[in-house]
């Protein structure tokens, strides 16, 4: 029972903080640029404001426009429920198989592209096409990352994979001897995951959600026709997805998952610290880099692809 | 009269399907004979054939029920339904055959009836496809026949009962090549995307959903029952060919504009995935990795089932679209979901199932395949480690492009505005069509979320194929007995942890979150909605062509992977630009299969050249010389026979 309680706490904490992480990246970026910037809580305000607004549905749209936002949101919530962010036993621990997670995320992509095509808007299709264009390069890399971790740690579930890394890292630090455990593979995977995090979450060198210029937009083009509560759902799903990727990064970076309630406060604090650090890094990265031409994005993504492929090959080891 | 004949044949097909669905279940594992004049036809129902008979009969019933209404398209041609009946019967009897003569007779009957069905439309496209199909399928039959002849020479018996564990590498290679031509494996696939789409839609569904499975049946029988266990490289060959086929098939499916052609290429993809499972399982059973062998074979067999269900549903769906909108070109469709809402939901579920969206059944097979590939990557056998990593890479690419291809297929066909008057004036779907389509779709969902009983049944089949060496049932048990238990937790390799996936938990989680989200947004949000036209940048022109097109949707991927395509495109437009849209802009694009361009065409040229050369040597008007050629070829045959008996 305590497990479920703590699992719920973990789930709702990340769910509640998701717009905050997105907000802090935005705020940091604006500060670096010398702008006054939004409030950190701006995305909460936006969300509740959207709820109050009337939803305008395109007269060309079908049932997809009504159900897709709900499905996208629930798939992202499910993946969030699988994550062992700072507590070892997440709500949906039996689903934490690596392949299930990746395919669940791709189901959300499937529905967001259907949503984009539903209103018959030229922008929507543009976004859908680009979404698949990037996903087809990034999703295999994500599978490689998880498979590399699975082969490396000989575990099939992410809860166990990250616990394995945590345990071995602790042993390596305290004994000064690392045995089979090596930092190389998680490090390579972190780089690759960072690139994927940027591309899957519409961050700057690939996409810029702050603009509404059809030459560049990907995520915004998909949800251009959404309004009111539907836009709220889709935006919140995007925040959750960002938090999911940041959490994956934080787990590879330095996994520390509490096993019981006593360890929890420290784990939460460490988790928040890691997340803020990652937000900071992403904000700096976004400020320093210009938006890339769309057809140059594959170059960057293929770097991620190759790194994770190499990591997958390296992870095959003896014993 | 024609109508009467039509309905007679269709009801005969349904009853044949029902008979062969029930008959194996009430008298399983029996041998029976049909005495005909020159020799007796032998049939036997064993665990392998019972699975395929039930699968073929089941899918044939759905398709026959569907053709009750669909047959209105072919009012003048009742013979199509007679051929369809023969086609279904021959497929079932191939699978039941228990000696080589029976097998080859029904195999040939299956090929011929399907050939006549392919050319039944009578236009030049179907004739061309029919010629290619006829040629390829008979090359395949030659390979299969020679494999059987070699088996006969080895065992001096016609019955399958005497062929156990005697086939060497030559026989296996011949048989696998022969069956692969029917299944559409990579170098032999060229006929498939031509022949499957041009047949009437219910026949396309039979060919794509069912006939390829007969080829898979042949391969399973040869590899696991007739074959000597001792050729691990054959398994690796099948694995990597399967992976390449899957990747190649889906890359081509993505760029097609013709709905049925997309589906045909997707069949090639799924055949590739099935081959990956079979190859890996054969390799593992030879090398003694029992659990990998079981999971990989389970993946292959589940995928056979899933592909049969979802692909037949999709082809039936394409038939409905073709019948109601009179086109199968996506670029002329669009907005169909408003006309046919229930049908469009069914089509969406079938498309999701085939593009492996969890928790539907397509994902289940792929999940098992991933699990066994990850297991194989940890065995310290260098070859399989290398190839399984490559296969994981190709499988993951295949999976994501399948998503793109079916999002495109569904999105362009069913969503958005009508792209032409054909789509605008499309008729509504009938009740029978919806019902017949909903059976396979319902099965897709049920198998996807509650596969436990099915998997324990398939465990028996797998134990039969490994003949007691591995007990499938033992390995594939579930943890505990509650419905949320994880599915067949398998430890694919020692030291490796259990891989688990609980589809019931997945669907429950999704439903809980859907419910919570619906409740939250019902309470918290302003419930008002308003309908308004899609934003069109303030232009007054109502241009339906301004929405995204199908070829645009796959353009980005096509550009990055341009090596895999052979395209020729051309834009024609008038220079006189009025407002924002040019009056006449014609963009034509032709995408052809690179294999056809780079392998088949040159090969055809060389074969023609060689045969011209030979005929110029041997062509003679001298009677004695001709007779001596006949004599010499007879001598040659005897020498070959002596060599083979050797």
Tally of strands of chain A: 1
Give the C-alpha Rg of chain A.
19 Å
Strands ordered across the widest β-sheet of chain B = 1-2
- The helix content of chain A is over 70%
Strand content of chain B: under 5%
Describe the oligomeric state of these chains in a short phrase: heterodimer
- Let me know the average pLDDT of chain A: 88
Mean pLDDT of chain B: 85
Report the uncertain regions of chain B: none
What number of domains of chain A? 1
With helices defined by DSSP (H or I, 4 residues minimum), what is the helix count of chain B?
24
The end-to-end span of chain B amounts to 59 Å
Distance between the termini of chain A: 38 Å
Largest inter-chain contact set: A-B, 83 and 88 residues
Described by strand count, sense and barrel closure, the largest sheet of chain B is: 2 strands, antiparallel
How many DSSP-defined strands of chain B? 5
Structural class of chain A: mainly alpha
**Order of helix and strand elements from N to C terminus of chain B:** HEEHHHHHHHHHHHHHHHHHHHEHHEEHH
Overall 3D shape of chain B: globular
Largest sheet of chain A: none
Describe the structure.
- The complex is a heterodimer of chains A (319) and B (646).
- Chain A is mainly α and 319 residues long.
- Helix content of chain A is 70%, strand content 1%.
- The longest helix of chain A has 32 residues, at 122-153.
- Chain B has 24 helices and five strands.
- Chain B has a two-stranded antiparallel ribbon with strand order 1-2. A two-stranded antiparallel ribbon of chain B has the order 4-5.
- The model of chain B has no long low-confidence stretch (mean pLDDT 85).
- The interface between A and B is large, with 83 and 88 residues.
Tell me the layout of helices and strands.
The complex is a heterodimer of chains A (319) and B (646).
Chain A (H helix, E strand, L loop, with lengths): L1 H31 L9 H11 L2 E4 L4 H20 L15 H21 L3 H32 L4 H18 L8 H17 L18 H4 L5 H26 L10 H25 L8 H19 L4
Helix pairs in contact in A: 1-9, 1-10, 2-9, 3-4, 3-9, 4-5, 5-6, 5-7, 5-11, 7-9, 7-11, 9-10
Chain B lengths: L1 H25 L4 E5 L4 E5 L2 H24 L8 H18 L3 H19 L5 H32 L13 H15 L8 H7 L2 H26 L5 H24 L3 H29 L2 H36 L10 H4 L1 H14 L6 H16 L5 H33 L6 H4 L6 H19 L2 H14 L6 H4 L27 H22 L4 E4 L17 H4 L1 H6 L5 E8 L11 E8 L1 H25 L4 H23 L1
Antiparallel strand pairs in B: 1-2, 4-5
Helix pairs in contact in B: 1-2, 1-3, 2-3, 2-8, 2-11, 2-17, 3-4, 3-8, 4-5, 5-6, 5-7, 6-8, 7-8, 7-10, 8-10, 8-11, 9-10, 9-15, 10-11, 10-14, 10-15, 11-13, 11-14, 11-17, 11-18, 13-15, 13-17, 14-15, 14-17
